[in-house]
């Protein structure tokens, strides 16, 4: 999606009053505006699926504007523990939280697992604190250079 198209999405959402679910391959630069417009126009909205770097302002926007989300999928994203805790503490009605293959928090963290215990389906397979390279990737990288 081009930058020009991306800028138009928050305005288009205002016309989609019956929008219940939004699935985007990558998080747009104007994500906060998008979430705000969803909250203003889409009363039935309950499911957000997006990938990208989830910063503090993004997590706060989700909590502020979409606190009644039922399903949140941030697969293959960068999501630090602090932002994850913001989401879990602020979106108390989550039934599904899919964070498969995220980087930025340890999927076995006891504090996180305790906080998400009320969520019916919490997916954390492949989550890790840092991106780990294996020897094969380093060999390929060295070869390309």
Polypeptide structure, described:
- With 145 residues, this protein is of the alpha/beta class.
- It has a single domain (3-144), classed as Leucine-rich repeat, LRR (right-handed beta-alpha superhelix) (Alpha-Beta Horseshoe), CATH 3.80.10.
- It contains 6 helices and 7 strands.
- Strands 1-2-4-6-7 form a 5-stranded parallel beta sheet, with no helix packed on it. It has a two-stranded parallel sheet with strand order 3-5.
- Helix 1 (3-13) packs parallel to helix 2 (31-41).
- The protein is globular.
What's the gist of this structure?
The protein has 145 residues and is an alpha/beta fold. α1 runs parallel beside α2.
In helices, the fraction of residues equals 40-55%
Query: Roughly what is the average pLDDT, rounded to an integer?
Result: 90
The assigned structural class equals alpha/beta
- In terms of DSSP E residues, the strand content is 5-15%
Overall geometry: globular
* CA(first)-CA(last) distance: 30 Å
How many strand units? Answer: 7
In CATH, the topology is named: Leucine-rich repeat, LRR (right-handed beta-alpha superhelix)
Number of domains: 1
Biggest sheet, spatial arrangement of strands: 1-2-4-6-7
CATH top level assignment: Alpha Beta
Largest sheet: 5 strands, parallel
Unreliable stretches (pLDDT < 50, length at least 5) are: 135-145
Write the element-wise H/E pattern from the N-terminal end onward: HEHEEHEEHEHEH
Can you identify the CATH superfamily? Ribonuclease Inhibitor
Query: Radius of gyration, Cα only, in angstroms?
Result: 17 Å
Query: Count of DSSP helices?
Result: 6
Known CATH architecture: Alpha-Beta Horseshoe
């Amino acid at each position: 999606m081009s930058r020009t198209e991306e800028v138009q999405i928050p305005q288009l959402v205002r016309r989609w009053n019956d929008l219940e679910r939004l699935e985007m391959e990558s998080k747009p630069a104007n994500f906060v505006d998008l979430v705000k417009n969803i909250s203003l126009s889409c009363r039935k909205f309950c499911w957000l699926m997006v990938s990208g770097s989830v910063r503090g302002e993004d997590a706060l926007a989700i909590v502020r504007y979409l606190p009644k989300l039922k399903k949140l999928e941030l697969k293959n994203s960068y999501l630090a523990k602090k932002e994850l805790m913001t989401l879990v503490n602020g979106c108390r009605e989550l039934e599904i939280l899919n964070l498969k293959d995220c980087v930025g928090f340890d999927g076995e963290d006891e504090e996180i697992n305790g906080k998400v215990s009320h969520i019916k389906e919490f997916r954390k397979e492949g989550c890790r604190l840092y991106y780990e390279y294996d020897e094969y990737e380093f060999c390929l990288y060295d070869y390309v250079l």
